[in-house]
Structures are given as structure tokens and as C-alpha cells.
Amino acid sequence: MKKILLFTIALLFFPPHLHAAGKTFLDKIPSTNVIKILKKNGVYSQSGSDEEKRAVFVGLQTAMENVFDQELKKDPQSKLMVVFLTPAPITPLCTAAENISEGLIHERLKKNKAIEKTVSSRAKTVRNLLVDGAQIYVLYQKGGLWQRTAEQQKIYLAEVKKHKVNLHSKELKTPFIQPEMIGALYLFQNAAKESSLFFIQATQANKPGDNPWQVGFGTLENQAMKDRFYSVLDYLGFQGQKNVKEAFEKRLH
Asked: Where are the domains of the chain?
């Protein structure tokens, strides 16, 4: 039931051009407090431990990635830009989906099957997005590559080489990314230039914490969405990634 609910939440808040994919499916699912909060505010936030929150928030991220990928497949003129801002190269591209790399999930989370499932699922969804043409930027802090094991580095660098046209891997100058900046931004645009935005604020699976968890979906008309997108984009500009910042801003206007 949890998996169904997560996928439902991911679909529910898309504008009409993204809504059809799950219309029949959604009709079977009752409303929840999470849905009500997102419908009202566009942003859903909670505090809590990884054990409590990771499967829900990253499960929603996984569902969103699936929906974006479906739309890329259906509409060749649609576009998706993603920026991941993380201490180390992103978890999904540091492992094979079939066999999670040792040490990729923190020891205290390893026995949590729901969390393990988010890692293996996103190893597939992020690769699917790359295959279907999404422009993905992976920005990690100075020395971040060495936070991954030799095996994980090898897997990640092979993906960078394989998708050199649309997977942009960059090491930042800073040795520390503030926890409130860690997460991802997604900007989807259909053939009619209609934009849909999604973001997640969350730590990586190898370094759990009790920082606030947050997701949002909507457009720049929602002030909370606008604040989050531009705070991250301004941070990227400050970190010397003006080309990434400008690429997103060009698509947003």
C-alpha cells in the first residue's frame, strides 16, 4: 500500500499534460494529509530520522523520476533538466541496481528493506532518465569522489563516460555543502514549453542525519517553490557553476 501511495502522490500534483499517466490509477486511492498539504502549499516538510522519513521522501522522488521518464518517452520534444547537489557523487549511479554496493547504505539503515528498495529502484530510474535524454548535472563537494569506495568510483565514472553528452559531473571548490542545500531540482518542460518543477531536500544514504526533509512540486507561481529553486541556483552561482545556473534560468523564463 505504501508503494501505491507514494506513486499516487507523485502523479497527483502534475498539471494536465502530465496527469493522464495515472488518472485511472489515482481514482482508486483516497485522499491523505500529505496530499492535502501539497495541494494547499506545494511543499511538504517534516523533521525526523532517516529510519522514519527516508523511504517516504526518497520513495516519492523515485516515483517522480518514473513519471518524468514516462513523459520523455511519450513526447520526444519534452525536456528534463536535473541538478543533484550532494557531498559525494549520487547514490544511484554508484551501484548496480541488482546488487547494491557494500557501504553505499549506512550500517544503521542496512536492515531497512524499504530504504534498500529506494536505492535499488533509483539505480534504475536515474539511468532510465539518462537513456531517454534528460540533462543531468551531478555536483559534489571537493574530495567527494573519495567518499565512495573504489568499486563505487569505478561504477560512477563508467556511467559518466557512457553518458558524456548528458551526464555532467563536476567537483565543487567547497569541501562542505551545507545540509539545507543537499538534494535535487527537477525542471520538466513539454513541447508547449509548459514547465513543472519538483525538488527534494534530503541527505545521502551513506550519511544519515536528522535534518529537515522537504519535497515540493509546482511552478514558480508558488512562492515556496520559487524560493527553493532560486536559493539553490544562487548557491550554484556562488560556487562557480554559473553555466548550470544560467541553463536552468534560461529554461525557467
From this structure: 2-252
pLDDT tens profile 82-110: 999 999 999 999 999 888 998 898 777 77
Task: Please state the pTM of the whole predicted model.
Answer: 0.87
Handedness of CA 171, 172, 177, 182 (dihedral sign): negative
At which residue does the C-alpha cell 532560486 appear?
A: 230
**What backbone torsions phi and psi does residue 217 show, to the nearest 5 degrees?**
-145, 140
Q: Are 201 and 207 in contact (CB under 8 A)?
A: no
Q: How far, CA to CA in Å, does 249 sit from each of 5, 115, 170, 182, 245?
A: 32, 33, 19, 19, 6
Terminal Cα distance for the chain, rounded: 39
Determine how many CB atoms are found less than 10 A away from the CB of residue 13. Answer: 18
Rounded to whole angstroms, the Cα distance separating 157 from 103 reads 18
**Which three cell numbers mark 245?**
545556473
> In this prediction, what percent of the chain has a pLDDT beyond 70?
84
